[in-house]
Amino acid sequence: MDKLSINSEIGKLNKILLHRPGFELDRITPEDLKEVLFDDIPWMSRMRKEHDGFAKVLKETGTEVLFVTDCLLEVINNNEQAKKELVELALEEVQYDNITINGLREFLLSLDNKELIRCIIAGLSESEVKSSRVTLSDYMQDKYPYYFKPIPNLYFMRDVGVVIKNGVALSRMKTPIRRRESLIVRLIYKYHPDFSGVPVYFDNKEEKMSLEGGDVLILSKECVLIGFSERTSLEGIDKLASNLLNSNSGVKKVLAVKIPHERAFMHLDTVFTMVDYDKFVIFPNILNDIEVITITSGGKSTLKYEAEENLKTALAKALNLPSVKLIKSGGSSSVISAREQWNDSTNTLAISPGVVITYNRNEISNEILDRNGIKVLSIEGSELVRGRGGPRCMSMPLVREDIDF
């Protein structure tokens, strides 16, 4: 049995990787908001309760839930080299002299493993490492409160990596503040026994072009969608498409989907997700702006491109269906659609065909899904949504049951 198996967006979800929000959220200040991609200061204790509710629904529906910190702890408890690599990926961000960096390395390696993981995720402040002040510059140069900063977006697990078939694409994040997140996940895939040895279809340590997991949807065993968005580059799409199409992945077609490059639509899954065999939920205000290009192998590691008439016909053709249904979030009101899309009405997580997890605050969109035969399991997300992401953004599915179209 494969360690990983994702051949669709809607097959019954059996195993998933999450990150429970932690102390890193309590270190966000108003001055940090733009850099860390939040629109407001989150209430961390409430956010954790909401996330626990999300995990509870997953478990109650039969999904095995793994957590990043547990996986990382298992890795560094059993592998000293992995622990050293974890320390180094944080030290790469330190803007101090080598003497200070060496002192920080010694300090971090001396920590209990649980405390080390907390530091790597929550950041390391100068006040926590008094002993590293060993040169005059440590005392007198302009300072930032942290040697390396908190990474509060880590709970958006879909962004940093996506399982495709029996392998993984490890994201190269667009914004520098998020790159440590994806490197932490890379370390887990490299060393954890549940994941090590799986095919890597995009390696964030080697590639320089941006590619983020929120732009990747696994439509079927043979077709993957990749969004050309604010966060994923054309070069990243070409690279992942080439790696999938010119390997033994089984993928035969990639649909590149261009969406408006705006903050509200930072990834494809913020405006479009799959909810059933032939049904998709979409933010209707962007329908006229979408462009779709089908990419196939041209042989000898080359690619062929073909423009599609529109998204709906491209999806039907890719799934070998006579037609598909695009369910408009927010209904006929452009105002309601815009308000609820901002709160991730289209960012649904399917846990089986026709069954999805959504935020309960998007009442109109949830009602529309219900009227279209989709069972909605809604969760509280008033604090979770402050980072601009929904149930799909918060999850990295690892294993789904195969389905046939």
Automatic annotation (TrEMBL):
Keywords in alphabetical order: Arginine metabolism, Cytoplasm, Hydrolase
Locations listed in the record: Cytoplasm
Organism: Anaerofustis stercorihominis DSM 17244
InterPro entries reported for this sequence: Arg_deiminase
Keyword Nucleotide-binding applies: no
Family note: Belongs to the arginine deiminase family.
GO biological process, one term: L-arginine deiminase pathway
Record EC number: 3.5.3.6
Location of the active site: 393
GO molecular function: arginine deiminase activity
Pfam families reported for this sequence: ADI
Enzymatic class: hydrolase
Gene3D superfamilies: Arginine deiminase, L-arginine/glycine Amidinotransferase, Chain A
Pathway assigned to this chain's UniProt record: Amino-acid degradation; L-arginine degradation via ADI pathway; carbamoyl phosphate from L-arginine: step 1/2
Catalysis: reaction(s): L-arginine + H2O = L-citrulline + NH4(+)
Name of the protein: Arginine deiminase
CC terms in the record's Gene Ontology section: cytoplasm
